[in-house]
Amino acid sequence: MRKKLSKRYKKLLDKTEVNKIETLEEAIKKIKKNCTTKFDESIDVSLNLNLKQKKEEVNLRTVVNLPNGNGKKIKLAVLCEESKIKEAKDSGAELVGSDKLINDITNGKINFDKLISTPNMMSKLGKLGKILGPKGLMPNPKLGTVTTDIKKTVKALKDGQIEIKNDKDGNVAASIGKKSFPDSKIIENFNAFIQTILKEKPNGIKGDFILSSFITSTMGISFKLKLNI
Question: Which residues belong to CATH 3.30.190.20 in the chain?
Answer without folding.
Answer: 7-70+161-225
